[in-house]
Amino acid sequence: MQKLLINGKKELSGKISISGSKNATLPILAATILSDQVKLKNIPLVKDIFTMVELLKFIGLKVNVLKKKNIIIIQNLDKNIKTLAPYRLVKTMRAGVLVLGSLLTKYKKAKISLPGGCAIGTRPVNLHLFALKKLGAKIKIKNGYIIAEAKNGLKGANITFPSISVGATENAILAAFSANGKTVLRNCAIEPEIKDLIKFLNLLGGKIKTQGRKFEIYGCTKVKKNISHEVIFDRIELGTYMIAAALVGKKITFNKINSRVIQNEINILKKMGVKLKSHKSSIEILKSDNIKKINISTKPYPNFPTDLQAQLMVLMTRAHGTSKIKESIFENRFMHVPELKRMGANIEIKNKTAIIKGPSKLSGAEVMATDLRASVSLVLAGLVAENRTIINRIYHLDRGYEFLEKKLKNCKARIKRI
């Protein structure tokens, strides 16, 4: 089992290039089932992407990964297609359920294992199924599988989501892509990753219009052949490293980004006393000694993302006074708290709110990663802590962070994998 060793209290400086977005790439990979040939650029080489590639190969697509160029070329020759996503390929990654919408609209049937992924909450697929039923799919759940069919094809519908869900919005868009007629989706998630999926589908010949949380989708009758798309940057990776820079940075510059996409996060860091300069396609973070307390709540985009909650909590341990962070997306997303407390953090959980009293002096300890974002919060804690931190179960990290040690080492961090 691999571990990370971090010797903290080392000031970081340098440049970090931000990788392509994992959360944008996964639904776009699911969407390639609808196409003939696609070239995807700026792909992050992380575990979840390779799992999705294995799933597409299992379904019957021809996939070529050019690792040195971060490019994936995918062909759907419509030969020997299996409309199945087995448990072994979906159990570690929730995004596997996104092939449901694509398979249903193209092949009129699908059998998909109920998904797994991180241990951060139940995250049920009921909203996905709610939307697909409205589009005319017959659905039953049997032996841990979703069995769906639409013998006469899916038909456009008016759908209002009872609550905002990223995955359900994506699955509904994929299912409606070539459904017969017009689909109107209301109360949609509007994350930049969803906008990137829509951009890709419109390149493919789709006709999808967005206005706030309302999407209009006109069933595509002719799919374009041989398209190319460059995936957007990973805003969660950027936010993670920005927080690392705020913790132990002297001067760190981030390139290959669009600062407008993370304006809310920039504003929050500024409120906390982080010194930063924001440009259109780069951000610079300078040494920030006077971190201030703040109260925030995680909410759907454009508000503060749940995927940065654990990382921001580490910064809150440096703040003067009491900070609060309310988790309103997932019910089980404070699993990093006991590990941070082992390192000396003063954190108390009441209902869905973490109360962080600072500043705390963190010291290195042996800790255990429980999910993707929790594990990276322990890396951040290790960077700022005195002495050595050992992080176990780092396979969670590899699901979503490309070249993490290399990027930090380039900025003079003392970090290694054993």
Walk me through this protein's architecture.
The chain is of the alpha/beta class. It folds into two domains: 4-19 and 233-417, Enolpyruvate transferase domain (UDP-n-acetylglucosamine1-carboxyvinyl-transferase, Chain), CATH 3.65.10; 22-230, Enolpyruvate transferase domain (UDP-n-acetylglucosamine1-carboxyvinyl-transferase, Chain, Alpha-beta prism). The chain has helices spanning 22-31, 47-59, 87-90, 99-107, 126-134, 166-176, 192-203, 235-248, 263-271, 309-316, 337-342, 372-384, 395-398, 404-409, and strands at 4-7, 12-17, 37-41, 62-66, 71-75, 84-85, 109-113, 138-142, 145-149, 158-160, 182-186, 207-211, 214-218, 227-230, 249-255, 276-278, 283-286, 295-297, 321-326, 346-350, 353-358, 366-368, 388-392, 414-417. A four-stranded mixed sheet has the order 22-23-1-24. The longest helix is centred in the middle third of the chain and has 14 residues, at 235-248. The radius of gyration is 22 Å and the shape is globular.
Secondary-structure map with pairings?
Blueprint: E1 4-7, E2 12-17, H1 22-31, E3 37-41, H2 47-59, E4 62-66, E5 71-75, E6 84-85, H3 87-90, H4 99-107, E7 109-113, H5 126-134, E8 138-142, E9 145-149, E10 158-160, H6 166-176, E11 182-186, H7 192-203, E12 207-211, E13 214-218, E14 227-230, H8 235-248, E15 249-255, H9 263-271, E16 276-278, E17 283-286, E18 295-297, H10 309-316, E19 321-326, H11 337-342, E20 346-350, E21 353-358, E22 366-368, H12 372-384, E23 388-392, H13 395-398, H14 404-409, E24 414-417
Parallel strand pairs: 2-15, 3-14, 6-7, 10-11, 18-19, 22-23
Antiparallel strand pairs: 1-23, 1-24, 3-5, 4-5, 7-9, 8-9, 11-13, 12-13, 15-17, 16-17, 19-21, 20-21
